[in-house]
UniProtKB/TrEMBL annotation:
InterPro entries with a match to the protein in the record: DDH_dom, DHH_sf, SSDNA_exonuclease_RecJ
Domain DDH: 87-240
Species lineage: Bacteria, Bacillati, Bacillota, Clostridia, Lachnospirales
Name this protein carries in UniProt: DHH family phosphoesterase
Family matches, as Pfam families: DHH
GO MF terms held by the record: exonuclease activity
UniProt feature coiled coil, ranges: none
The organism of origin for this protein: Candidatus Cellulosilyticum pullistercoris
Length: 323
């Protein structure tokens, strides 16, 4: 392996300047990395020593929500609904990113002590992917006036128009690539929008939900309990890893922070699956169990598992997921 890596590095060295080669050697020696790996890290971070150090240690601080298009508009719409005690419903998705995104916003509203909040996780067979007219219709019948999508909605033109025709307000938060035309939502939070100045375009859906939660808590000048903060950090790490979002920029820092929280027991359900939690644990042990719920049963089962804090219930719950 070492010979192969050395051969590849020699082949691509022609593309590096002497200064860049020197930095590659420095990084390789400092961190005990193969030259080939050091070269990739240096190139990924534009041969900037500060960025390289932040990348390796995961210390690059995330930006706050400023710069995300429609974030302020979304907060204003939510605050207006809350002021009138209107019913708000979060519509998620059946994969881990969608489930964790939903739980993040539920946790934010819990911190805000807002009671008129509900959620819906689509059934794969019955609903298909994302927001649809039936989901909107059911929300309307339940008296919901504000819909917030997480990890979906950017392509839900028909459902969005239907919600608007019923007099409902709709906020779309999504991280997927944009369709040729956008839905007629009251607000859209998606960093891929051309006029969105937010620098990090690779957030998972849970990262977008987290940003909206940050903005809401900032508006209310709220400092959530350490328990809720740690839970949200763990959820962001779980959703980011399971959606295979690139571990660069603030994703890297948020995953690192979330892993620390998870290893301190922030989400008891995760600790039941593994006493030591790593990126591999999230991606190959916890994630597949949760995704199986969305494929075989209901993503609601995955959410209930993550929400459970009673150890006497968690172990039987885990056995059910394993069966």
């Amino acid at each position: 392996m070492e010979i192969i890596m050395h051969t590849i590095l020699e082949h691509i060295k022609k593309a590096f300047t002497k200064e860049e080669e020197a930095l590659i050697q420095k990084v390789s020696l400092t961190y005990g990395l193969y030259d080939f790996i050091a070269a990739i890290i240096c190139e990924r971070n534009h041969f900037n020593e500060k960025e390289i150090e932040e990348y390796i240690h995961g210390t690059k601080k995330p930006k706050n929500f400023i710069g995300l298009k429609d974030i302020d508009k979304s907060v204003a719409l939510i605050v207006a609904a809350m002021s009138n005690n209107e019913k708000i419903r979060i519509v998620g998705d059946y994969d881990v990113d969608g489930v964790t995104s939903t739980y993040v916003l539920l946790s934010v509203f819990e911190a805000l002590n807002y009671q008129a909040i509900s959620h819906y996780l689509p059934l794969r067979e019955k609903d298909g992917y994302g927001l649809n007219k039936d989901i909107v219709e059911n929300a309307y019948r339940d008296g919901v006036s504000l819909l917030i999508t997480v990890d979906n909605g950017i392509s839900a033109h028909e459902a969005t128009s239907y919600a608007k025709s019923l007099g409902m307000t709709i906020i779309v938060t999504d991280h997927h690539e944009l369709p040729p035309t956008l839905p007629d939502a009251d607000a859209i939070i998606n960093p891929h929008q051309l006029d969105c100045s937010y620098p990090y375009k690779t957030l998972a859906g849970v990262g977008i939900a987290y940003k909206l939660g940050q903005a809401l808590m900032s508006y209310f000048k709220l400092k959530p309990s350490p328990q809720i903060v740690a839970r949200i950090q763990g959820l962001v790490a779980l959703g980011t890893i399971c959606d295979v979002a690139p571990l660069i920029g603030e994703n890297r820092h948020m995953v690192k922070t979330g892993l620390i929280a998870l290893n301190k027991g922030a989400i008891p359900a995760a600790s039941v699956i593994s006493s030591k939690i790593s990126v591999g644990t999230l991606g190959f042990q916890i994630g597949p169990r949760l995704n199986a719920c969305g494929r075989l049963e209901s993503a609601e089962t995955a959410l209930n598992f993550l929400q459970c804090e009673d150890m006497s219930e968690l172990y039987p719950f885990k056995q059910r997921l394993d069966s």
